[in-house]
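Dear Dr. V.,

Thank you for agreeing to look over these. As mentioned in my earlier message, I'm a first-year student in the group and I'm still getting used to reading structure tokens, so any feedback on how I've presented them would be very welcome. I ran two proteins. I've put each sequence directly above its structure. The first is here:
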Amino acid sequence: MAETLQTIGNVREVDITAEMQGAYLDYAMSVIVSRALPDVRDGLKPVHRRILYAMHDMGLTADKPYKKSARIVGEVLGKYHPHSDSAVYDAMVRMAQDFSLRYPLIDGQGNFGSIDGDNAAAMRYTEARLARISDLMLADIEKDTIDWHDNFDNTLREPDILPAALPNLLINGANGIAVGMATSIPPHNLGEIVDALVYMIDEYKRMDEISVDELLHFVNGPDFPTGGIVYRYRKGAKGEDAIDAITQGYATGRARLILQAKAHFEEMSRSRSRIVVTELPYQTNKTNLLERIATLVRDGRLEGITDLRDESDRTGMRIVIELTRNVEPKAVLAELFKHTPMQQTFGMSLLALVDGEPRVLSLKRMLQLFIEHRREIVRRRSEYDLAKARARAHIVEGLLKALDILDEVIATIRRSQRVDTARTNLRRNFGFTEVQAQAILDMPLKRLAALERKRLQDEYKELQKTIAYLEDLLSHPEKILGVIRTELLAIREQYADQRRTQIVERTKGTLTTTDLLPDQKVWISLGADGELRRQAYSGISKTSLRQAGSNAAVAMLTANTRDYLYLFSTDGRCRRVGVHEIPEDKPKHLAELTDFTRRDTILAALALPRLAPDEAAGALFLATQQGMVKRIALADFIQAAASDPDVIRVEGKDRLGWVFRTPGDGQVILVTAKGQSIRFAEETVRTMGLAAGGIGGIKLKRGDAVVAACLVDAQGELLTLTETGFVKRTPLEEYSVQGRNGSGIIAHKVAPRTGPLVSAAVLTPEHEFAVCISEKGVAKPLAVDEIPRSGRSTQGQQVVKPGPGDRQRAIQLA
């Protein structure tokens, strides 16, 4: 026994219970601090931080070539993270997946997995480099902005955290299971988070008083990379009100959110339709979802489905679920939400490390800690830059002094036997410091040129400005907040994008058909031939307007795919079509979408949100070519719109030409082909029933006709276009308000060379362009500044010249 003890060494008796408790606590803290939880400042766990720093150290920035993933993993393992290579590679792959991170930090090349659940290719096949946005995570790391510690074998230094100018924890989120606790932080929209941070900086003096409700004016809720729907409210216990889960999560750090796939219905025929799923809840495996649906159908637990296929491609996700005849699509969709991963619960837990300890945080506290982190980074960066600037200014000051006494300096150096002697003589004879004397000895002969002297003087002036700025910045902490604010706004300008996840302001189970439609801004154009076209809205430019206006003689307007487009025939009939039903980039005749025939003529179109009658304020104003006008309460129109109503009784050869929404107490203006106009209050036209005819709006001379009817904007201008392309704009203040049904006043002087007026529109300060459209469909976009401004009684200028056999027909605004 004695020999055994001698071999083992010292043996202590310990209490097994205490030993196990201590050992497990050490293990638990190691997992919590060094593995599972992110730091609130840079939003990274140690493995992610080490990967990013190693790639930065390798020079793998966004403008450099890709490097093999195996090489990167080896660098991380060998220098900083002595664990499994698969753990490092898996973490690296996730940072490159645009369906896992809202703003990927790594730019991967090759197979990095898919939303279908496909694994990434082996690390020997894939390549990677840092994404451009990662520059913000590592910016200024070389300027003593952070603390460092030894790596695992004490041969290298690695950062405690990254400088992180990017609020990474909130925009990319985090999840991890520690010991006795777990974190689940959803990703957010960068623009919204920056707006909230800027607000907190602006209100820094009342930081303690800022409420979660104030922050929710900027942060609408989570914004997942896969889009989908998040319900703001969750049903409470029986008899209790619904719980605002988003507000609860941001106030307390914990909440349960309901996530749902985004889907819409498409008609296949009169009695058949299909469900199209375009977005899935976060971290939902598409392949598993398809298998689950197929299993439910096969087992008879889900009825009404005839076909299931995945039509997803590079342009986006599209899961098509075809339904049997006469089945209720909403009922099938409800079953899909109930029995498949198309609806899930996301447990929000805003748990992160604060000063090395796990803390559950509110949204406000997370934002506040990020601001404090950036204050420390900017302070240390400024101190570093100040020290560098002072050191350089000291050297430049010595060089300039040496140039002033150049002959004596050269003589002193030439008389010295050694470099050390020369340095000592320079210090003793001229009062240079050790650093200045060394810089003089190191100065190349080219610095003796007069031009180089001027450059040194300019450099010294700039250094003095920099020093003064940095000293002022460091002595006024509030100015550091201004620097942070400016940097955040620059980040927003460069990297912010549109929100992907839709926040539904209601509880689960009350989803409406409108909620299931795509939420997208689009161009709608309607040609004189009845062709309807929908195009994605890509902003306003001459190119986009030329495309949208190529066949838009009747209407060219922006709408949302959730809106209704109301079409009005010349004989007063109205039909509506969902904007989402209009094919994208492929013209379709309105006769294929409504019960209008190809013989019907449509001269008016109007896009409106899907309003309930009690939400419909204001009125619809109608005008005919013979000067008759009518006003309908918008609520009455919305109430009857589903039944394809007639909206005006048109007499004889008259034709309905214009329909637009008014506030109920505005003014309208009518313009005629012979250049007359009349402006009057809409209230002089009483609201009427749908079946009624109109009343007189303007008295027309023989052979004249109305060519435009518009809502007046007090700050606007009347834009007029003639048949031969003469255009002008005139401030509406030149058009006095008159009584209804008068002869009006001149709006545009017409002559044989101008031809008659063919169109007019009211330009508001929001409008940037006007598009002149000819009978042959040629669209000519004009910036507002290109359109001459002149008085009512002028002809304008021929800005648009129609081609041979062509003439102008309409003008549209954007």
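The second protein is here, in the same arrangement:
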Amino acid sequence: TRVIFVNPAKDLNIGVNVGAQAYLPGASAHVDFTVTDANGRPVAAALGVNIVDESVFALQDMQPGMEKVYFLLEKEILQPRYEVHVIDPGVIVEPPTPLPPVVEAKQQRAATVLFAALPQSTTSYSFAVNTYALKLKQMRDAWSKRVLADATRYSIAMQIFLRRYGRYPTRQEGVAVLVKTKTMFWLIPDQWGRPYEFGPLWGESYRAGFTMHTYGADGVSGTDDDLTAVWQPGNDPYIQGTGGIGEGGPGRDGGGIILGPGGGIMFPPVPAAPPDQNGGAKTGTTGADGGAADATSGQQQDVRVRQFFPETLYVNPAVITDGTGRAGIDFQVADSITTWRISAMGSTKDGLLGSTDAPLRVFQEFFVDIDFPVSLTQGDEVAVPVAVYNYLDTPQTVRLEAQPEPWFEPLGSMTQTLQVQPNEVAGVRFPIRITGLGFQSLTVKAFGQTRADAVRRTVEIVPNGQRVEVTFNDKLDKDVAQTFNIPLDSIAGASNVLVKVYPGIFSQLVEGMDSIFQMPYGCFEQTSSTTYPNVLALDYMKRTQQGSPETYMKAEGYINTGYQRLLSYEVDGGGFSWFGDPPANKVLTAYGVMEFFDMAKVYDIDQAVIERTQQWLIKQQDPDGAWKPDKEYLHEESWGRIQHNEILPTAYITWALLASGYMGAETAKGVAYITANMGQTDDPYTLGIIANALVAAKSPAADDVLNRLIGMAVEEDGKIHWKAGVSTLTFTRDEAADVEATAIIALALVNSGSHPDVTGKVLAYLISKKDPRGTWYSTQATVMALKALVASLDRAASDTKADVKVLVNGQQASAFSITPDDSDVMRLVSAKDLVKDGDNEVRIQFAGTGSSFYQITGVYYLPWTDVKPTPAGNLIDIQLTYDRTELDTNAVVTATAKVTYNGPGKAKMVIVDLGIPPGFEVQADDFGALVEQKVIQKYSFTGRQAILYFDSIDAGQPVTFSYHLKAKYPLKAQTPESSAYLYYNPEVKATVKPVQMIVH
């Protein structure tokens, strides 16, 4: 059979009209949409609108046009949309609804005429001046509407502030206090993206009103496009009448247009230029000061700093058109100088679909940018590259100023000058030594002869040492205290303490949604396990009717991405394998069918995937009811200790079939085989899987297995767990295997409804083993722990109501309240400023009813000189060498890695994390060749690392490979840490210390 797509008879045509050919960074933008059917008739539709950077758009999975296939596979064309309708008199000032800005070309032409210095004359006006007055009047109307609309928003915010606090803001507080008190969402800029200038009408308070000033299109003070709106309590800041001279309110000194409450526009007289110290007239910008602009005006103006650089600019899943098929959106563009891609996907209640995309260009002819690496290490010396882009028609002499910051020491001048020709990009470097830590920003200003620009970029500074974490987890129903020690020789300023408080188990699940998705996902099981927490969360939210629309959308987005990835691992002929290559793996396929079944409860998927996967598993069953292990993936050194090693895969596959809704003769034979042979098994991991299979089958033998497991349990400090006793189905061992086995047994206990006293202690153990990332060591342990916790939620109420205080070393770090209404909200407290060397005491005071859970994590860094090397004979080892550590810019260095497994048999699913030095570019072709040679299965890049996925490494047979790195610019920097570890046993890890690279 072949799947084909039948094109619908009718479609939607979506038109996109961007308000300008190009916008300046930070400007307000307006986009109109029109929707018609195939016959050109307007129709009402719901549009999903996304605006992302072009580079991101090219990589995204859901391109316009593909929604046909996507939606036609759904049972319902339109799923319910979520809207939040809130009337809160405390926050009524919404984001601005600006008018479209002037098209750049028209703006430049108009500025040439409108804003030039014009001397006053008593003679009759020339033709040019009459044209000026006419055009000024035309443009004035559009400008004044926007200014007055913004002034109205600010006036409303002032009145709300008065009602809240019984006073108006002071001059010193300014309008910024409106945002600090959440009276406004943000300070609304003018239509050119610049902040308004505010001042009280008089005195030190805004009680008499305010003036709100913009420098207009040219951004220069004192020119004829300046606008000032005036507001007084009891009056609206809008214009009435014909626009002639009327009762203008008090204005700004310095000229420009004043919009007064009396309904008129007036032009203040231009004062005489004050004499300078030499008795001459002061030269400057036109307008207030008179005279022509001097040659260095581009270097004197206060330039706006560009600092907001998102990849996604705008998302709205439900832009609803009116009856004429029209809708519009307003937003502020980011500071990125790029082309954004608007994608719109529409649907109607009749099932018509359509999509389109259109560009939105953000550009300015002169700008500066910083080329930071993703991260740097404390102590690095780097020459930060700064580029100047000149798309003007004239050459520019540019003065560059890098602003001093406390996180670095300059190694040269922070001011440089360069010549940039028309349509040329030129660059300089600012040498600095890194002394600070954390996320830090560098600001560079560029002043040309006619234009100026400024940019602020952020870089992460990591400590030059190995990260060490100490974690405590437990129940929070009374005051608790924990103490951890930070060594005296740890890196100063790098230590921290993080306290998480989970009001309920559901908040732990929500945290897991993000945490596990950040783990590597190169194979089927990893991809499956990064998707499963979102399936569990969405299922619980829908069953209990809780959770926010944002959480719903996040979970659905993750599920959709994961589902599409999972399908790519299906093997021809049926079943799934780790990387999609034959042969299929029975146990892995069983895990997948359980997830697909759970996914189908909350998300529309192709039911045929579940059915054909079940049938493939059934065909693999032996006549006696057993399923043999997958020989290619069998840990013989571990499973060989099981007398009947068919019992483990048989129990797991039987459990999967029953849990996915299949009940037939095959599952009955599987249950019979399990019951007949389970007495010959004595490891808790296998017995836990057997218990789940028998509980799912509602077999009386389930109680016997659970009672046997309880007799094998280990109880410590009121918590119960089990030792796995065998390597798990995904090759996990040691403590990670113990956590996974305990989670599997907990799931059986919860689903059976028996032994509630034991179940509570088992869940307490699982919560105590949560790592700082919000996961449980490995993907399988995390998924099984979350499944057990979610299953327990149906039998437990979250009725905590308490006040919580967090104190670190006797000082309060945070205080908050917990109520049943916010049980899905995890609280995170960072007390970096309160940490000290030596013993640190963390106390959590709990006053109220119910119970929560807490996690305390102490973090510090040990200098690499104090870190012991990986011992010889470690279970896994990695060595990394470079053919040279000192080279010139644009030269290439060869790195050679050697990974060795020293245990028995072979290591499955090995991850090698190679640190990429800052300022270097990795040559991806080297890793592509490793995939072709079957050395690795897959690779991926993050900003500072290359992650390689090995299917297996045989004991005593080292894997050696080389790759190349190209130096981009001068620096003296540490390479990031590199490591190798077993994916399902992350504690089995070897680390390579960083080395210093010097680039001339």
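From my reading of the second output: Confidence is low (pLDDT under 50) at residues 61-133, 240-300, 516-520, 634-643. Residues 465-502+799-862 form a domain with the Jelly Rolls fold (CATH 2.60.120.1540). Does that match how you would interpret it?

Kind regards,
E.
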